[in-house]
Structures are given as structure tokens and as C-alpha cells.
Amino acid sequence: MQQTVVIFLLAFSSATQALDNGLMRTPPMGWLAWERFRCDIDCENDPQNCISEVLFRDMADRLAEDGWRELGYVYVNIDDCWASKSRDTQGRLQADPKRFPGGIAKLARYVHDRGLKLGIYGDLGTYTCGGYPGTTLDKIETDAQTFAEWEVDMLKLDGCYSNATDQEQGYPRMSKALNATGRPIGYSCSWPAYQGGLPPKINYTLLGEICNLWRNYGDIEDSWDSILNIVDWFAKNQDILQPAAGPGRWNDPDMLVIGDFGLSMDQSRSQMALWAIMAAPLFMSNDLRTLNSGARAILQNKAAIAINQDPLGIQGRCLIKESNGIEVFWRPLSNKASALVFFSRRTDMPYRYQTSLKVLDYTPGSYKVYDVFMEKTMPTLKDTTEFVVSINPSGVVMWYVVPSAEWQEQPKFHQAIVKADSFIV
Ligand SMILES: *[C@@H]1O[C@H](CO)[C@@H](O)[C@H](O)[C@H]1NC(C)=O
Ligand SMILES: *[C@@H]1O[C@H](CO)[C@@H](O)[C@H](O)[C@H]1NC(C)=O
Ligand SMILES: *[C@@H]1O[C@H](CO)[C@@H](O)[C@H](O)[C@H]1NC(C)=O
Questions:
Q1: 17 lines ligand 1 (CB under 6 A)
Q2: Which of 65, 76, 212, 255 is the most exposed place for a label (fewest CB within 10 A)?
Q3: What are the Alpha galactosidase A C-terminal domain coordinates in residue numbering (predicted)?
Q4: Where residue 425 falls among pLDDT bands split at 50, 70, 90?
């Protein structure tokens, strides 16, 4: 009798099953080379910025020494263009000998010695997008074994130079091959991005069972247009995407470009806020050696990170799109808390948006509100109280909202806030 019940429950919960490698129960955080450093392999003329072991050691040092690791930014991830143009005599991938003279295993040790994790990149196809050796179907087990032997902690498997049939076979097979190595390796699948990101071509139930995260949509660029394009696609398709996410299985709208060249401070806060609402992986692609203090403060905002990392792992949604260019996003959090983002697409001046929690579907009661970027608590709000938020053009106001009665029961988050600005409840 007991057993029947268990089987019945498992059958019903299988739609929300995550890849069973114990990893990434909250969205992964760290640093990824691609958007900022691309396929710069000119180490002779650009030694500090080319794709080489120097770059990844530098970023590991910064993550370990500048307070990132303690906040959860622990992955140091290699992207394309790390490999030699040819496999070794036994058919295994090998790092470019000039740019990675120590090899990947040694780099992994360097990263691990600093309490961090190393991610690597492969491509399910004839070639990687940059023209390096790809992982064809017959090479899947070999490459999984190589990555495990190097003690790599995460694999991003891209999809250039392959077709839908090969992807359908290859992505699940790599998942099995990684598992068979016995080493827990986080698995990022670019599969949906190559097939339009939507059903029927993409089965998100299956993806959740075989991948820890997946790129749904095109590559991010260092521009506000790119952010808007991504946010719009995710909001438009949220009924499909939102239920796909959960502990161990995340939609990935791509890297954070905060600290690069394309975003203003307001736009940077917007990316941080919206990525937190979307329960997105937080992979910075910037130069941590030269990051300005404004970008650093946004990326290290403890409340925004705590919202992103909420243990319930429920992705948020766009609730309201006003014709005046204001949008409201919402994410339910643990302990009856929630996050709200008031986002302005306007291009004129700070907009005074009036609403109430009741209008935003909050249940009757009184609420404590903490403003994430102002780093301060607001006067207690009743659900019916009309309030006004002033939202900068292409900026956000982000709130952490808790029923007043629950406020004292937020030890972890509260501690983060206290640390952030010495605020005392
Ligand atoms: C492999 O999969 C099994 C069953 O799903 C799981 O219990 C185990 O932890 C996995 N191992 C690794 C290394 O991912
Ligand atoms: C997909 O690519 C493989 C080569 O990797 C090829 O053998 C196969 O015929 C292709 N399938 C389709 C449907 O194009
Ligand atoms: C999607 O994948 C799941 C899990 O593998 C499977 O049970 C389901 O039948 C698939 N759905 C479709 C429409 O193929």
C-alpha cells in the first residue's frame, strides 16, 4: 500500500523532476568569458585579454579576493576557443598548448585551491561556433571522460554545426555520459536556443530532466537593446518558460553585461533586478580587474542576490505592462515574501507610478517593504494603501516585500541586509 502511494506521487511529480546530480539547487553564479572576451586568441599582441590560462587565473584571483566568492559567484567558466585545433593521438580534446601551457587540469586545481569551480565549453557538432573541434555523437563519452579527468565542474554544450536530429540524440546522451563519469558536473544545454526555444520543438520537461540550465534564446550583446530584446522574449513566452524552472533546472537568459560598456547605471540595475526576478543564472561577463565601483555595488547587492537565490526556486513573471511604458514584475519567495520590480521603458524623465499592493494581487494585510537598491526599509504598507514609486528612464525600483507578521522571521535575509547597510529592524 505504502509503496503504491510513493510510485503514484513520483509519477505525478515527474513533470517537475530536475537532473539528479545534486547541483545548482539555486541558479549558478560566477563568471563566463564569452560576451566580454569572445574569441580573442591574439596573445602576442593582447596578452591580458586573450583566451588563455592567464585570463582565467586572473578572474579566479579577483573572484576569491574581491568578495565575490562569499556572495556565491563561484564558477570561473571558459567559453569557446580554448582548445587546440586538433584532438590528441587518442582522439581526446586538448587545450591550445601555447595559450594553456599548464593544461586544463592544472587550471582546475588553481581554481579549486581558491574555493571556486571551473566550467568548460564544448559544442555538440562537427565544430564549435569558433571553428574548434566539436563533440560529434561518437565523441560524447570520450569528451565527458576527459572533462571529468580534468576535474571540471560544469560544461556548457553549444549547438553550432549540428542539426535537430543530432541534438535530440546528443544532449540527452551527454547528460548520461557526464553522470557515468561519477563526477558531479553542472550541465548547460544550448539546445533550445538552436530550435527556437519553444514547444513543440522544445520539450521543457525533458530538458529539466537532463540539463541543469539551458540557453533558450540568442546571445546577449553589450547593449540596452539586447537586454530589452531578451526581456521581451522571456515575458512574451513566460507561460511556457516560467513553469520549466525550478531547483536544479533553470532558464538562462544569458550573461550579465553589467560593468562593460553598453549599459548606464540605471540599465545595469535593471538587468540585475530582472535577472533576479527570472531566477536566472548570474554569470558576469566583464573584466573583474577593472570593474568600476558602481557596477561592483550593483553586482554585489546582497538583497538582489538573495532574491535571485531564493531556495524555493520559483521563476517570476511580468504582471503588468502599462501603455505608458511601465511594467511590473513579481516573484514569489520563501517565507511568504515576494519581490516586485517596477520597470520603466520610458525615455523622458523619472516617472511617478501610482499603484497599491492590492492592485498587484496581494492578499489583504500589512507589509514591510525593503527597497533593494536604496538599501532601506519603507514605512509599513497596507494592501490598500496607494503609493507612488519614482522610476528612472530605463531603470527600476526593486522591492522585497514581506507580510509584517513574518518580518522578524527572516533571519538569513535580514542578516544580509544588516551587513549591507547596518540597517536595524
Ligand atoms: C547519476 O544519476 C543517479 C540517478 O539519477 C544519481 O543518483 C547520481 O547522483 C548521479 N551521479 C552523478 C555523478 O551525477
Ligand atoms: C544531421 O547531421 C548528421 C551528421 O552529423 C547527418 O548524418 C544526418 O543525415 C543529418 N540529419 C538531417 C536530418 O539532416
Ligand atoms: C516530454 O518529455 C517528457 C519527459 O521525458 C515525456 O514524458 C513527454 O512525453 C514529452 N512530451 C512530448 C510532448 O513529447
A1: no
A2: 65
A3: 313-395
A4: very low
